[in-house]
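S., here's the first fold you wanted:
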Amino acid sequence: MNRLLAKTRVAATLTTLLLCQTLPYVSAAADEPGAAQKLAGPADYGLSNSVSIALGGNEQGYGLKHISNLKDGLTTVETIDGVAARSLRLDGTRTTLNFYFQIEPGFKEKDLGNVRFEIEYLAPQLGTLGIHYDAMDSDTVKNARYREASVQITLQGSRDWKKATFHTRGDAIFSNRQNGRADFRIWAKTPVLHIRQVTVTREASLDEKWNNQFSGTNQVTVLLGQEKPDEEGLRYVTQGGHATPELLGGVPCRHLDRTREGRMFASIYFAISPGFKRQGLKNARVDIEYLAKPETAFRLQYDAMEGDTRRLYKPLLPAGAKVMRFGTGADYATIPNPGVWSTATFHLTNGVFANSQRDGADFRLEVLPPEIYLRRVTVTREDAAPAIRPTSP
């Protein structure tokens, strides 16, 4: 059945793309930066899995429009080394560049809570790049109309065209509530940015991404380095992940090592099955099997409530850990047995676990220096967390 549905969706997508190629568009001319692209004929984008727009020159949008006449997003068509694109530069007192986009209503008729944004861009100078999308209103989101996507990209400054990928956090509504009735905007803090292609792709909901619901079990586990995502109720979040599968002394595991990048710390992210959480997961025990070098320290950060305040990255140290405190006031646990496989146990309370961390994760292990081996992570339901506290420095 799943294969039949998949084939049907593929066929529908191909049919829509062929139809799109025959539809004429009215494009914004280089000397008319205020005109957004408009469909000259009808198209059923409800059958498609993605919409896109090629910017610059003879612009073509297939279910996606660029709004170029807004005061804080007045883009122009430019040609960079023979490549046409939309461009924007900082001027006056502005500190942020904004590119606004609107999604064709037909594409939004089906659930768009989870989508993937893909951008082709050129950023010749240093800066930061991200996406704000129109999300559901929530007490935990400061400004839902401009919800930050899953991750921000650091711009290194390059004359090469690059691609960046962003994801919504499962709460997108795209109700045209941004400036100019836009659904999302690409923002950047850099002196100049060129964009030549933008694509929005529908992704499966969190429940659809898990074949089994795990609602009848008290525990979920992931074996790092030999993951079986279709069978496990706990997943290592591979998207944007930097922990590579390895065999260490014949033991399958994942190895996180970002020391060569000059980073002080790094994180490994995990997501819990929605079905496992549906029965309630306010308190839980997380056991992490690891191997690390001397002078390594870590802490777990999870999506939780702290009193009346929602904290997406609430810090927690393992039971009985010795605390190492940094000058910033951040506490980490020093590992007691370097060079051997060990288990750290964390008791989580008042958890929310709404996939609100990066790339839809529920919790992460933050490590410094950023190198560690992990072979197993287990989450177990608890009625109440034991009153075991770390050892003060």
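And the second, which I think is the more interesting of the pair:
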Amino acid sequence: MSFSTNIKQELCRLPFEAQGCMRAELAGMLAAAAVITKERAVISFCLTTESPAVAGRLHHLTRLMYSTGLNVQIDKNKYFGKKRLYHVICDDDSLARQILKDARILKQQDDGPDLYALQVPPYFLSRQRYIKHYMRGVFLAAGSASNPQKNYHIEMVGRHDAFLKNIGDILSEYDIRTIIGERKGTAVLHIKESASVVTFLGFIGAHKALLEIENVRIMKDMRNGVNRQVNCDVANLQKTTDAAYSQLDHIQKIKNKCGLDHLSPGLRQIAELRMLNPDVSIKELGELMVPPIGKSAAYHRLEKIKKIAQDC
């Protein structure tokens, strides 16, 4: 089962709250994905989803609010063999008009054509809980989420740029960063930063999914920290080894051309210790001296040996 499916099932199991919250969630679902048609002055609408949980919640919402549930038709998705499509349909003109009017999507006019809202209605922005339920409805109807093991990404698809841009502007007020793009002629709102993804899931009430992402993020941070430390240790070891073998080359050159007796007692001692201990660090090499010397002093003695080797 996909992460996106898990989120929607979690949200669809949440209890219904006050009438205004139910209306806000219903409005978000319909505004995001419902196809509204008008033939011979008769209005109907259909919302299509691959999620049986979403179809069931929409049916349950309308039954609670209007004492009658919408029709649900099921058919196989011809493009994705095993998946099914759920069409939630309202073909009763009076009921469709009432639902769309309550959702602030349809504005009936005495003169001229009916108007359809392309922005989140002010009514659903009047209270924070309405905004949260509206955004939950938008995600349920038109959203999806990537597996956090791969990347942090939520997207919501819409037919109108203006609607998604309005959604993005509202979410930005809650520190949720969004990007509007296009895919195959369809507008897409993206939430990509991990912090924004987590904030959005908490905002719409998907707390179990939020905790799952946080656990994944913690494990990734720990793994990355370990990898950085290992890479750092390997790099330091390689640097120490390269330096030691360069020093051995200098000592061998002096030994072959001038002889180690050419060196002062202190330089000769550290040269002999380096030949006996090719893998130790400069600090450890200084500690082997009699008497022991610090890392800086050992480094300067090896630099003197390097200069002598160049002059030999």
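Why I say that: The longest strand covers residues 42-49. The CA atoms of residues 22 and 64 lie 9 Å apart.

Talk tomorrow,
H.
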